[in-house]
Write a structure and sequence with these properties.
The protein is of the alpha+beta class. The protein is built from one helix and five strands.
C-alpha cells in the first residue's frame, strides 16, 4: 500500500491466505515476526483486524480477533462479503 499505510484498517474483515501461500511466505520471510507453525492452521479463516502496527521501515503487522500472533499484510486478503 505504501510506507506506514495499511491496506486493512481496524475493524476490517480479512481472510487469511491459504496453506500453500502461508508456507511460501514462511519459507522466504527471514526478518521480524516470522509466522509461527501454529498460525498455519488458521489458513483460509476469516477474522477481524483488531490492531494495526508498523515495524521500522513500514512493514504492516496486524493482530486479528481471537487469533494468535502477528499477521503480515502479505498473508491477508479482503474477506468476501457475506
Amino acid at each position: 500500500m505504501g510506507i506506514y499505510k495499511e491496506e486493512f484498517p481496524a475493524g476490517f474483515r480479512v481472510k487469511i491466505a491459504d496453506t500453500e501461500e502461508l508456507n511460501d511466505f514462511a519459507c522466504w520471510w527471514k526478518y521480524h515476526h516470522p509466522l509461527k507453525p501454529e498460525q498455519l492452521r488458521f489458513a483460509g479463516q476469516v477474522s477481524v483486524v483488531e490492531n494495526v502496527a508498523f515495524y521500522h521501515g513500514g512493514d504492516v503487522l496486524y493482530t486479528l480477533a481471537d487469533l494468535p500472533g502477528y499477521w503480515h499484510e502479505q498473508c491477508l486478503r479482503a474477506a468476501p462479503d457475506v
